[in-house]
Design brief:
The strands form five sheets. The protein has a five-stranded antiparallel beta sheet with strand order 6-10-9-8-7, with helices on one face. The protein has helices at 48-59, 76-85, 88-99, 108-112, 135-148, 155-162, 227-249, 255-262, 281-290, 293-298, 302-313, 322-334, 351-376, and strands spanning 17-24, 28-35, 42-45, 63-65, 70-73, 124-131, 176-181, 184-191, 194-201, 205-212, 265-266, 272-273, 338-339, 348-349. The N and C termini lie far apart (102 Å). With 389 residues, it is of the alpha+beta class. The chain folds into three domains: 16-118, no CATH class; 120-250, Alpha-D-Glucose-1,6-Bisphosphate, Chain A, domain 4 (2-Layer Sandwich), CATH 3.30.530; 255-376, Arc Repressor Mutant, subunit A (Orthogonal Bundle). The protein is built from 13 helices and 14 strands.
Amino acid sequence: MDGHFQFSRDKAVYVNHYYFYIDDAGFGPLFIKVCSYAPWGIKLCLNGHEWAKRQLDRRGIAYEALDNGFLSCSDPEKLQQICDSLGPEDIERVFRKWLDRIPLPLRPEDRHAGYDWDLSIWQMEVSLTQIFDRPLRGREFFEEIIRDNLDLGRPDRVQLIFDRVVTKKTPGEFRTRGIQNGVHPSLHIQYKNFDLKQYFKEGRGCRTEGTFRNTKDFNVNKGLSNLPYLQKIGREINRRLLEVERASHNSGLSGDGIQRVVQPTVTEDGEKAPALKFGQPRVMALILALTMFQYLVNGFHNRDLRASVISNLGVGEEQYTASQMTYDLRRLRLKGLIFRPPQTHRYFLTPHGWKVARLFTRLEARVFRPAIAMFTGDDAVLPFPSGHR
């Protein structure tokens, strides 16, 4: 005889939660969410900026708030010290304080017997807000940043910002998203479950913020004790993004500086430095290869750069030989675009080299390539026939 079991419910049943919205003297607004079902999970949500404001108020330090940030402060150095001092002990203290005051599923004797809650980090945000003296110029600068860095989500560039090697097995979609909310654009870069966002805040400041949604993406467990280490990782990610954008934005060179690159020159040691002529396919492929972001951090070997140049040229290895690569490396070194530390075979891009590489690639992508496409396309302006003006 076969047994049969069937179960159905007429309507959905949702887990009940109880929210306690609290205005804490030290932390400001926060809330605690308590689940009424075993094992009675608890969520604590608080804001470090609100905590910093309360600390400034206690010390009598004047400031002007900017939503989740600060527009100005009479003692910015003290403000930074306060922000740096927030640690796991402060969060644990306020958590235990309110567990003793709100009704909970576990009785006091249950908790004394060892049945209690431990905090872990399920979501954490680390931010940096830079205020502009001239908001209009700040908005122009930020929109230029978005246009220049739409390819930061590519795997080869993501690994520079997040200081993590990205392989084919790395989960997640590596992309950059530009989101327009009304007239407020924002830039989003994703690595696994981490979201790095940048936007122009309230028309006054450039806001860079990274959100950890799974600390294990960075080989860190979720224990609250790891808060300082995650803060360090988040600040380094924000800093690297800003450094990449600053280098990308500040790529101007003087006329003399450009001439020294595109014309043959002689170094102070009397060595002849062959020209790197703008527009030559081999030179442009070489310069483009230098802009690969992983080379900025770890440098590159002859074979690394050669593989990139071959890919940019779209030719086989026999058409761009190792000896040609050696010649080009010498040209780059004598022009001051790269350097090689003593007793190594690894090259690094110089700040001057980074500016030249960015300027050349920008000119080709934004000026010369569109102009050539326009004049060679179907809608190009044809020359006047002979005998007509």
